[in-house]
Structures are given as structure tokens and as C-alpha cells.
Amino acid sequence: MSTENILDISKDGGITKKITKEGTGKTPSPFSKVRVHYVGHTSKGIKFDSSRDRNEPFEFVVGKGQVIKGWDLGIPTMKIGEIAVLTIKPEYGYGSQSMGEKIPANSTLVFEVELISFDDSKDWRSIKEKSVVLKDNGNQEFQKNSYSSATSQYQNSLQLIDEIPIEQLGEEDKNEVNGLKTVLNLNLAMTLIMQNEERQALDHCDQALKIEPNNAKGIYRKAICQGNLIKYDDAIKTLQAGIKFHPNNEAMIEKLKFYKKKRDAYNKKHQNNNKKKNNNQRKKNTRKKNNNQRKNNNKRKKNKKKKK
Questions:
Q1: What is the CA radius of gyration of the chain?
Q2: pTM
Q3: How far is Cα 205 from Cα 79, in angstroms, rounded to an integer?
Q4: Annotated catalytic residue within 6, 19, 46, 48
Q5: How far from the centroid of its chain's Cα atoms is residue 203's Cα?
Q6: 94 is catalytic
Q7: Tens place of pLDDT for every residue, the chain, 308 residues?
Q8: Is 142 in the active site?
Q9: What is the number of other CB atoms lying within 10 angstroms of the CB of residue 230?
Q10: CA–centroid distance for 273 within its chain
Q11: Which of the residues 31, 72, 88, 94 is marked catalytic?
Q12: Residue of 188, 238, 234, 192 whose CA lies nearest to 215
């Protein structure tokens, strides 16, 4: 095949495409359900499969791993009506696995593919839009102090957004999805704090901080969770680390002072309690010792009387 007009889809030569008939319109998005005709050969020219021979187009959902990686990455570059030859090296095909006699291990595969149609009603942007609607519903419930209902809306929104195959998105789109994930996790943390569910809230703070490690709201709400769980040392460490990145954040500075006082009061109270316990234990031991001495003295007196 001439290298003229050959597109390197994978950017490493692993998946290449040569268009033999131009298509029209837009290309499929992740989660689109596509309908194709194809004929598959090995690089040695051995035909191993053909939807045209069966006169039955093949359908699959892009980005779900229902087909080889070469198809998941190659088909979304096509337009409706386009016919193209996809050449797929083993690492994007079946790798070192053989698929019967016709496809030995480490085979390069060649597919002539025609994109007949696709349904992108479930593409990632559509999913994101539905997720945003649920998030906004959660915000309305939160404003009404309906924290349980808000939690449910945020959880449903996050569940939707988690379905998006983020690894297949470009950098800008990844940032968009991750930004929404961060907001949802932080909103969930807040509603759970309001319901005294700090352990669950702490987990959502950590999820948000995995995406944005220096997020001010994430750091502050994490410290609130730790403080409410009487983990004052942890809360102080969290706020001290946060203030390094947000030195002018007054809320963090004030909360740090607050938790230092709470820690000192807590430690003092427990030291006094321990001192009381120790004193009580010493008194108990002394009484026990005195009782034992009295018993021994009485026993000795009895023994003396018997001897007389």
C-alpha cells in the first residue's frame, strides 16, 4: 500500500487508515453505537471474516472494549458513508493470542470498513449534560436544607459522569469532566457533613483531592471532617499543608487556630481524666493492700491463740 494519504491514527504506526471513499458529516463520539460493514484479512492476504458475506452489518458501542483496540480507536475517525482500510498491528489487535488457524499469534490485521451509521445519543457530552442537570437539582435541594435529597441527586450525577471513558478524551475534555467530578465530590462531602456522616464525607474529599490536590474547598472540608471525628492532629496537618498553597485563606487560618485550641483542651481534659484514673487506681491499690495487711494480722493473732 502506498504511504500517500495514510493517516497514523495511534501516532506510533500501530493503527493506520487509508480512505478509499470519503464520507460526510461528523464522526462518532465515545459511547456511540456504530453500524459497519467490514472485510478482514491478515497482512498475508488471508480473509478471516466478512460481514458482507453474511449480508449483515456489525454493530458495537465505541469505547466499551467490545472490539479490538484498533477498532475502538480507528472507527471514531470515520464519517458516515466513508470506506477506509485500517491496518492494525498486533498490539492493537489480538497481540500474542492466536484466533484459530486463520489468525496466528502476533498477526497484523487489515480491515476494509464502511461506516453505515451511528447513534451518538449516549456520547460523553450527552451524559455530561444529564449529569449537570442532576447536579443543579442537588443544589436546589441543598438550598432548601433537604440534605438527604441533595445527596441522592449528587450521587446519581456522579454515577453518570463516572461512566464516561475519560481515557479516550482529549486533554481539554478530560479537564472538563474532571472539573465536574471534583465539584460533585465536594458537594457530596458538604451534604454528608450536614448529616453527620463525616466518614463518608472524608472519602469524597479525598476523591476530589486526587483530581485537584490543592483544591481549597477540598482541603477545608477534609479538615472539617477530621475535626468532627475528633482527629484534631490530622485536621491541623491538613490545614497546615493547605495554607502553604493558600497562605491568604482566612477560613483555613481561623480553623487552624480553632483546632489547635480544641486539641489542647481535649488533651488537657484527657490528661486530667488519666490523672484521676491513676489516683483512683492508687487509692484502690492502697485499700487493697491495707485490707490484706489487716487480714494477715488477724490471721496471725488467731494462730497465736491456738498455740496457747
A1: 34
A2: 0.59
A3: 42
A4: 48
A5: 11
A6: yes
A7: 445 589 999 999 999 999 999 999 999 987 789 999 999 999 999 999 999 999 999 999 988 889 999 999 999 999 999 999 999 999 999 999 999 999 999 999 999 999 999 997 767 888 899 999 999 999 999 999 999 999 999 999 999 998 887 877 778 989 999 999 999 999 999 999 999 999 999 999 999 999 999 999 999 999 999 999 999 999 999 999 999 999 999 999 999 999 999 999 998 887 766 666 665 666 676 677 767 777 776 776 666 666 55
A8: no
A9: 11
A10: 43
A11: 94
A12: 238
How many residues would you count in the chain? 308
Say how far apart CA 243 and CA 251 lie, in whole Å: 10
Give the residue from 240, 233, 295, 285 showing the smallest Cα distance to 264.
233
How far is it, in rounded angstroms, from Cα 229 to Cα 180? 28
Domains of the chain: 6-119 (3.10.50.40), 124-246 (1.25.40.10)
User: In 107-249, which ranges are continuous DSSP H helix?
Assistant: 124-143, 147-161, 171-194, 198-211, 216-228, 232-245
SS3 label, residue 96: coil
The cell 461512566 sits on which residue? Answer: 163
Cell 464522526, located at residue: 27
Between CA 112 and CA 18 the distance in angstroms is: 9
Alpha-carbon distance of 237 to 220, in angstroms, equals 11
Question: Among the options 31, 92, 111, 232, which is catalytic?
Answer: 111
Indicate if 111 belongs to the active site. yes
Instruction: Specify whether 259 is catalytic.
Output: no
Judge whether 154 counts as a catalytic residue.
no
Write down the catalytic residue from 9, 15, 68, 219.
68
> What is d(CA 50, CA 241) in angstroms, rounded to the nearest whole number?
60
Exactly one of 38, 220, 232, 259 is catalytic; name it. 38
